[in-house]
Amino acid sequence: MSGGEQAVVREGLARRQGGEEDFRWRGEDVSRIEGFSDAVFAFAVTLLVVSLEVPKTFDELLATMRGFFAFAICFYLLLIVWYEHYKYFRRYGLNDAPTLWLNSALLFITLMYVYPLKFLFTLLIDELFDFAENETIEPSQFPLLMVIYGTGFIAVQLVFVLMYLRAHSLRTVLELDARELSVTREEIQGSLLNILVGLVSVAIAILGGAEHVAWAGYAYLLLFPLQAINGRVMGSRRRKSEGTRTAAGADTDGEGP
User: Fold this and answer.
1) Helices 68-92, 97-129: crossing angle, 10 deg rounding
2) Within a 10 A sphere around the Cβ of 120, how many other Cβ atoms?
3) Which residues, including other chains, have CB under 8 Å from residue 125's CB and lie 6 or more apart?
4) Helix (H, G, I), strand (E, B) or coil at 105
5) For a disulfide at 143, which of 65, 91, 205, 229, Cβ 3.0-4.6 Å?
């Protein structure tokens, strides 16, 4: 990165003291990228809404209420993506061209991801609570549905990997300390683990066929232990590293006059 580009990045950073315990936030209040992104996320939530019309009869109200369970799940999953996006821009405050393009890719994928997301969880809730009045998918189509869902999941996680790699490449310009670098690497590893789980799910859907497609869904349960292990391992490394630096600092002070 040239000196001029470094100056642009530095000028775009807010030097406020707020943030997380492990991370100093460098983001400004709300950048144009974030404002536009929030509008896109809001539109994505609108696409999830069960019905835009007010029910005119009680039967229509009940039919609408049946979709709220799936809506709640999809809303929560979109909220996770939004929060990860929010956290990234609060931490690094980047507004450079590569970040702009990666952010645009994330928004595009999110909008395309809404429909398979809604279809999948509406289908699952209908099957679970016996809401379905007619068949909306053939058993032989379930593997393809899981492949579509898995592909969207992998794509979202891949963009986050690239965004965090971009921030990591600018670690000197951003003045990331050792703890912040560790958190950045933890985020990269976490997204890579998510991609691995998505690939496992897609592989099961393709190779297992309709008979074993349920395992393609169960594969996503691996996300919880893998992320817990990733967080614990990286947290332990940070504590050990800080302990070493503290001990080294104490030894240095002890050698003084």
Assistant:
1) 160
2) 21
3) 66, 69, 70, 73, 131
4) helix
5) 205
- Environment class of residue 99 by beta-carbon count within 10 Å: exposed (0-12), middle (13-18) or buried (19+)? buried
Hey, what's the torsion of the CAs at 90, 93, 95, 99, to 10 degrees?
A: -70
Q: Give the closest residue to 23 by CA, choosing from 107, 102, 89.
A: 89
CA R_g for the chain? 22
Contact (Cβ atoms closer than 8 angstroms) between residue 31 and residue 92: no
**Amino acid at site 176:** L
Q: Is residue 129 within 8 Å of residue 69, measured between CB atoms?
A: yes
pLDDT digits (tens, 9 = 90+) for 68-81: 888 899 999 999 99
Statement: the pTM of the whole predicted model exceeds 0.90: no
83 and 34 Cβ atoms separated by less than 8 Å: no
- Per residue in 33-49, pLDDT (tens digit) is 899 999 999 999 998 88
* Nearest Cα residue to 209 out of 146, 152, 149, 119: 146
**Taking Cα atoms as reference points, which of 195, 104, 197 lies closest to residue 158?**
195
**Whole-number Å distance between alpha carbons of 157 and 169:** 18
